[in-house]
Write a structure and sequence with these properties.
Helices cover about 45% and strands about 15% of the residues.
Length: about 290
């Protein structure tokens, strides 16, 4: 990571949404096109630290820790539907006076981006979507055992029993062997998961996986009927949503634009930031 977690936190601000404090980061020229970065599960916006400065040099960049994640509020008793996260993002965009924007999303954030794309009929207007590794198609998603357990009836107990050591094992499984997470990255990511009593809501947040199948027609349909440019950048060594997800994307999305990153796992923006930047900048230069 380029910014330490503490540096990342110090560079943020607070946004109030429905009585909850939401952690937000802003950078770039106010007059530049807006790029919204949407993070994945179970981490937070710090995932984008390795590419933040480069993106901010070209665009007005916004990101946030969604409700239940990172440095944002983690209310107990909340059900954390994905539509709520899309509502939160739209509220933030309106508060920032954003009328037009682009999205770069990862993992859980991919599904939030699909919901935003499905809503894309009024301001703020979404103009392009670039997705990193994530469960875009539920039938091609291969969750780890810990993910399945967290979203089951045993989820609250599993969350309470989770430790930094067990978290590190899971994270190492989804990074490519050529580029494992560093001790500093693991420590920071675990801090984000556990901050503000995060384990108490981890099971509730993880139940987003159960929404993907019943809402598949809406979310997959949003990609199939999209009127804006789309690109998938995928680390093919990801055991959760790697090469098989890319294959499914090519099968189902018209005129598929896919960039595969061999030797890269589930977190391409951390594992291969330069490759992600090149692929994203080329996408924007060519398609928008």
């Amino acid at each position: 990571m380029s910014d330490s977690l503490e540096q990342w936190r110090r560079g943020g601000a607070s946004f109030a949404w429905q009585g909850n404090d939401i952690f937000v980061r802003r950078a770039g020229a106010p007059s530049a096109p807006v790029l919204l970065l949407i993070h994945g599960f179970p981490t937070a916006s710090w995932d984008y630290a390795p590419i933040w400065a480069a993106l901010a040099a070209r665009w007005r960049v916004l990101t946030l820790d969604m409700l239940g994640f990172g440095f944002s509020a983690k209310p107990r008793g909340h059900t954390y539907p994905l539509a709520d996260q899309a509502d939160l993002i739209e509220a933030l965009l309106r508060a920032e006076s954003v009328t037009d924007y682009h999205v770069l999303a990862h993992d859980y954030g991919d599904t939030v981006a699909q919901e935003l794309l499905a809503r894309n009929s009024a301001a703020p207007k979404l103009h392009s979507v670039c997705l990193l590794n994530g469960g875009i198609f539920p039938e091609a998603h291969r969750p780890l055992l810990i993910q399945r357990l967290l979203s089951s009836a045993a989820g609250p107990l599993v969350a309470r029993l989770s430790t930094r050591a067990t978290f590190a094992v899971s994270m190492r499984r989804i990074f490519a062997s050529q580029r494992p997470p560093t001790p500093e990255e693991l420590a920071g990511l675990w801090t984000l998961v556990t901050h503000n009593n995060g384990r108490a809501v981890l099971a509730a947040v993880s139940r987003y996986r159960l929404e993907r199948q019943p809402r598949r027609p809406r979310w997959v349909g949003a990609l199939q009927t999209a009127q804006v440019p789309l690109r998938l950048i995928v680390g093919t060594e990801d055991p959760i949503a790697g090469a098989a997800m890319a294959d499914r994307y090519r099968q189902l999305v018209p005129r598929p634009d896919v960039v595969e990153l061999p030797g890269v796992g589930h977190y391409p923006q951390i594992e291969a930031p330069d490759q992600v930047l090149r692929a994203y900048e080329e996408f924007r230069a060519r398609r928008t």
